[in-house]
Design brief:
Structural class: mainly alpha
Radius of gyration: 44 Å
Largest sheet: 2 strands, antiparallel
Helix content: 55-70%
Number of helices: 35
């Protein structure tokens, strides 16, 4: 292996390199040869190898140290002459070079391979990491300042910004130690929108920091469970939290119990609500109108017997001396609209029973419950058992039909009918029997008098019995009808005028929601329907578009398109403008192709783009008529307006595109299905060019980018627990 040598000038640099020569061993030192460089001239670097090294340069070997003096062996000099020449050329080029000027000659790139902008973006995304949050300098904001700021953001429906402010600025940047109120206000914000997962994350983080949750925290958590989009999951979370609180012997206040009642009402059934009610009464809490409002919410969930349950809960509330507010009256209207009365025999038995026979009630007055709780320590467990017995009796009466044998009501009904037939029917007798319509009719009158009495009842509104009035004592009312329609159930509460008079007696002011529900309940073409606007002005309630939309929807469901359009001038007269919901309600009555296409044309002239709900309503009407040319025109208009179909529309169209079962088009001719093949061809082509609507996640708008990715990963893991 040849050694490389480095020629070091000893002329001008001799003084600078003395440390190098003095550091060498004595045997390695050599005296400089004669000759020196001329000033201002670069030395000649290329010399024939036979001439030896340049004068004034001494070679340094990079090989192992030897005892020979440098320059004593000419063969070594000849062997390293080529390397010396290259080194001399580099040093010649380096002369006059200053620091920082090499960038003009040399590139800083290290890789010279082909790439694309997409590859560079992917490389940047892979290398992206969350930047480390550095503590902010300067004065820090207090936890109370963050509490007020988050509260204001949540009030403005900016929950995502409030969470970002708390998690990033407060905890990471300023590193302020949070307090219980900071967590509680955010958990409350998550509870209002049903963001259960984030609410319990904040709750667990709160406990990890050693902060003690308060009753307001538990109330917010239960409220989050009640408002969850997935009721089963929300109920399980609430029951788990309730079990944890029981194991810790945590005492809940009335507001927290109301939040727990709300969970049971919206996510479970009425029986679970009674379990919570027993615990509330046992703890000595004062029952209020809000308590019974949650019981009414649970009653409304039962579409078959909900109206009867609501009337029974109303009676128990009035026995305690609690007056209903506007919210409870609205709940009663919802029960009349959405629920049935159940078995008429059972309803007659439990609703028309005299008050003195009704032994299952809460005997505690609201103002004396606290005194009873104080005396429980003296009297022992007997008083608590008595309280529980009252609630259990109330529950037993509410679910009365499950505790009696089915033969007993039938025998009782036959007995009542036989007694009514054997009694002499006097003309002035006020006895009442069922009508086919479910209303209460006076017995002992001929058909003409019954028609006159019915007209009189409609005109005066006060002749009908009001089951909401506890003072009603008409012993001749022996049974109730089926009350199959909402207007029949409203008649049992005194109709519109009697219902509003009862609200006036309880000092409950009706609002626009009350009149909107009444508009849905009153009979079509009835005097009550025509007098609703006058009643609105009488109670000085400001009308909105939703009220008129309800009237339009009601007429459209009857197929009265012209009657629905006649409501529009009254809407404009009140200074209101129709919205998309107005046109959607008008679309319900567009059964013919001419009417539906005219509605779409009017929307186009008005500069309004129809939404998916309008198209879905028109498609439903066309499918009912099996009008495939109408369906094709609706799909063509959807394509022109680029309105993406949702899942409901796809299901409607898939149903319309299917052949009927056991249909053989070669065996017989069906005039309704003549154009189904043309529709099927266009529909399948239409599917290829239309993009479907993606249903957003209910919590998507409350998540930041990083938190959304983490949540999606967790949800994917939960959906596929066996795959990794």
């Amino acid at each position: 292996m040849r050694s490389m040598r480095l020629l070091v000038p000893l002329g001008p640099l001799a003084s600078r390199c003395r440390w190098a020569s003095s550091a060498l061993p004595r045997g390695r030192r050599a005296a400089p040869e004669g000759g020196s460089e001329q000033p201002g001239k670069a030395p000649r670097l290329l010399r024939p190898p036979s001439r030896g090294p340049l004068p004034g340069w001494r070679p340094f070997s990079s090989s192992q140290a030897s005892g020979k003096l440098p320059g004593s062996d000419l063969r070594e000099i000849d062997a390293g002459s080529s390397a010396e020449a290259v080194r001399e050329e580099e040093e010649e080029e380096d002369e006059g070079v200053e620091f920082g000027t090499l960038s003009n000659k040399f590139s800083s790139r290290k890789y010279y391979h082909k790439t694309t902008s997409r590859f560079q973006n992917l490389k940047l995304q892979e290398g992206e990491e969350e930047p480390e949050r550095k503590p902010r300098r300067g004065p820090k904001n207090s936890p109370y300042w963050y509490f007020l700021k988050c509260k204001a953001l949540i009030k403005e429906d900016k929950l995502a910004e409030a969470l970002e402010l708390f998690e990033v600025q407060m905890l990471k940047e300023e590193r302020v130690q949070p307090e219980e109120s900071n967590y509680t206000v955010l958990i409350g914000g998550c509870g209002r929108v049903g963001y259960v997962k984030k609410a319990f994350r904040l709750y667990n983080d709160m406990k990890k920091r050693g902060l003690t949750p308060t009753e307001a925290t538990y109330t917010a958590l239960f409220n989050a469970c009640a408002e969850s989009p997935w009721k089963d999951s929300g109920l399980q979370s609430a029951l788990k939290l309730r079990q944890q609180l029981k194991s810790k012997n945590e005492e809940l206040n009335l507001i927290t119990y109301h939040a727990l009642l709300k969970v049971c009402a919206l996510c479970s059934d009425l029986r679970m609500c009674f379990d919570v009610l027993k615990e509330m009464v046992h703890k000595g809490h004062v029952l209020t109108a809000e308590t019974f409002s949650f019981l009414l919410m649970s009653c409304i969930k039962d579409s078959e017997n909900g109206f009867r349950y609501a009337l029974q809960v109303w009676k128990e509330m009035t026995k305690l001396g609690i007056k209903a507010d506007s919210h409870i009256y609205n709940l009663m209207l919802r029960a009349a609209r959405d629920c049935g009365i159940g078995d008429p025999v059972v309803a007659s038995e439990v609703l028309l029973r005299p008050a003195h026979d009704n032994s299952s009630q809460l005997r505690l007055a609201p103002g004396r419950q606290k005194e009873k709780v104080k005396n429980q320590k003296k009297k022992g467990s007997e008083s608590a058992a008595a309280v529980q017995l009252d609630v259990e009796a109330m529950e037993k009466q509410l679910f009365w039909e499950s505790s009696v044998r089915p033969e007993e009501p039938i025998q009782q009904q036959n007995k009542d009918v036989n007694c009514a037939e054997t009694e002499p029917a006097a003309l002035d007798s006020p006895s009442v029997a069922h009508g086919r319509t479910g209303a209460l009719m006076r017995r002992g009158q001929n058909k003409t008098e019954q028609e006159q009495a019915r007209l009189s009842q409609k005109l005066h509104f006060c002749n009908l019995p009001n089951l909401l009035d506890s003072r009603m004592a008409d012993a001749a009312v022996v049974s109730l009808g089926t009350a199959a329609t909402p207007s029949d159930r409203l008649a049992l509460m005194g109709d519109a005028e009697g219902f509003l008079n009862k609200m006036k007696d309880d000092n409950a002011e009706p609002n626009i929601k009350t009149f909107t529900l009444l508009a849905e309940l009153v009979g079509p073409q009835s005097p009550s329907e025509s007098s609703l606007l006058a009643l609105l002005d009488e109670h000085k309630v400001k009308v909105d578009v939703t009220f008129f939309n309800t009237l339009i929807r009601k007429k459209s469901k009857q197929g009265d398109l012209e009657g629905a359009k006649s409501v529009l001038p009254a809407l404009v007269k009140r200074g209101l403008s129709p919205n998309l919901q107005t046109f959607c309600n008008l679309a319900i009555a567009c059964h013919r192709e001419k009417d539906g296409l005219q509605l779409l044309s009017d929307l186009k002239r008005s500069g309004v783009t129809p939404n998916k709900y309008i198209y879905s309503t028109l498609i439903a009407a066309a499918v009912r008529q099996l009008d495939y040319s109408y369906l094709t025109e609706i799909l063509r208009d959807m394509r022109n307006n680029q309105v993406p179909p949702n899942e409901v529309i796809i299901r409607q169209l898939e149903f319309a595109a299917q052949y009927p079962p056991k249909f053989d088009r070669y065996k017989s001719k069906n005039p309704y299905l003549e154009k189904i093949d043309g529709f099927r061809g266009y529909y399948y082509r239409w599917l290829k060019v239309m993009a479907g609507e993606e249903t957003p996640h209910p919590w998507e708008k409350y998540r930041t980018a990083k938190r959304a990715v983490d949540d999606h990963e967790e949800e994917a893991v939960q959906e596929q627990p066996g795959q990794k």
